[in-house]
Amino acid sequence: MTITFGAIGGGRRTRFFLRLAAALPGRLRISGVVTRGEERGRQITDEWGVPAFRSVGDLLRHERPDYVAAAVPWPAMPDAIRSVVEHGLPVLAETPPAPDLDGLRALWQDVGGTGLVQVAEQYLLMPGHAARLALVREGVIGEPTSVQVSSTHLYHAVSMIRGLLGIGFEPAEVRAGAFDAPLADPLGPDGWTGDGTPQRRTTTIATLDFGGRMGLYDFTENQWWNPLRTRRIVVRGSIGELADDRVVRLTDPVTPVESHLVRRDTGVDLSLEFRDLKHISFDGRVVYRNPFDGSGLSDDDIAVADILERTGVWARQEGPAPYPLAEACQDHLISLAIGESARTGGPVTTGKEAWAQPVRCNGWRLVITEGSGEEADRPALARHPRVGPVAAALPVPGQVHGGGDRGRPRPRRQRAAAAPPLLARAPAVGAADGRGQARGDLRADRRARGARGDRAGGQRGRAGAPQERVPAAGRGRVRGFLRGRRHDAAQRDGDPGGPLVRPRRPARGPAGAAPPADHVITWEGRPWW
């Protein structure tokens, strides 16, 4: 399967996309590039063999790709997004989607309800971070309570903090400060400078208080490139801590143990294989596997290629949303608060914005029944246990747990007692109507299940629709319901384990037709999308 996408912009990031498409010809293809200047377009065509156009309309008349990736400067990004959405085509926007809070609000008002916009936030798809996220979601260190990130800047770091903590759209109190200090800065995007003289560089440190969970942001100018400043990732949990690749946790009241994340990189020393990342393991089991094995891509290249491919799968309605606009807006909202607090020296508290409400995702929407207990007021995103975010914004209040999620992960020993919810994709309806419909369908399902008794197997769901039985892990406090599909309850005890399973997908209908029948993907026996 080859994902085809167009691009807007002729700068460094667009060339990044062109390079990845050239490196993965069987996976990614660029149909054309939209540039403002004719000369820049001619350069791209001569160098990469890709046609250039002056407008999105011209690009789409040439060929209609799966989606369009916009990589333009901050001030131009909102209009670039709107220009694609106007043609009814999905768009993947570079970060951030708008330069300031007013821009975010205006953009959301214009395109948020369409569900056509994803954002290229790739950091939790990077192999090392994806492996760490998998361990946190498994509950290896218990409930995550704080995350420290000293690696990348602003919205990228906020995305990592929110993802590792399982934070949705809760208010955050931000306290930040900035100071200057001398630091040699010998390497930048254009290469080695040849100057080792210390220069004044600004370091910004901020705390993000989410009400019981905390993030620490620490970034120095040009930290991405400067070899004198290494990255640091610390996730602290209720029964352990993850610090970079080292994990310590309590296995019983008197036994703390230490383990490590281990990369398998070929082509090192006497390994005569091609230089490549194969996988990352933990305690003898693989927790991350390179989806582009044999490509020789760097970690950042892998993450960007991953989100480019996932966006195409989502645009075809064959997979979940990689990073919805609502998530990127929330990341930048908090990053703007960091900057404001650093300038003023006082705390800044973020509020609940319009994007915290549920929206359709490419013609579909999530229908989640309300949770109960202390977690009921914590909105969440379902997350794949290996590679990051997979669902659009959820209603508030509500909580979703799956094979991995943005809610509070439960330790393995508790999974048999708490079922993950099911994400329902249904035609768009009002938020209140959707929740009421889901609750009514769930009650009808219970009555039907009682009439059937305990028999297993057979056809479930719509008459004639191909179905696969979805095992349930038990009844939890949070319950979801997938419209059009019926589930047996509590057929198994414990955590059955197993591969990623996707039922046969019905054929796609013509443009404008009703969405295809719902389908479920399971991970280790638990439905996660």
From TrEMBL:
InterPro entries: Gfo/Idh/MocA-like_OxRdtase_N, Gfo/Idh/MocA_oxidrdct_glycsds, NAD(P)-bd_dom_sf. Residues 4-111 form the Gfo/Idh/MocA-like oxidoreductase N-terminal domain. Residues 416-435, 462-475, 508-518 have a biased composition (Low complexity). Residues 476-486 have a biased composition (Basic residues). Residues 393-529 are annotated as: Disordered. SUPFAM superfamilies: NAD(P)-binding Rossmann-fold domains (SSF51735). Keywords: Oxidoreductase. Residues 436-457 have a biased composition (Basic and acidic residues). Pfam families: GFO_IDH_MocA (PF01408). GO terms for molecular function: nucleotide binding; oxidoreductase activity. This is Gfo/Idh/MocA-like oxidoreductase N-terminal domain-containing protein. It comes from [Actinomadura] parvosata subsp. kistnae. The lineage of its organism: Bacteria, Bacillati, Actinomycetota, Actinomycetes, Streptosporangiales.
